[in-house]
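Give me structure tokens for this 101-residue protein.
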Amino acid sequence: MDHNTYDYIAEAADALAATGALALQSLSAEQHLIALSDLATIAALLGELATQSRRQLAAWATVGAHLQHAEQHAADLRRSLNHACSTFAFTSCLQGQSWQA
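Here you go.
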């Protein structure tokens, strides 16, 4: 693995440590959004790590196929977490508004 790969691993580990330190029951809506965003960032970093690994191990065809599958899973996870984040932000905003008839 090259230096960039280790940087991605370190970034993902830092983001995970920051997210894992939160007590989810006591979070505000804003803090929940930050935690979801951190999880989406971790998923993106995992996808980038899988891409780099696949390129480095291109000669091993069967390994590359599994890493490509991992890339797709990471992209799907990132997309789902981003959608969850957006939906949560929207519904949190609606709940905070006072509606007048």
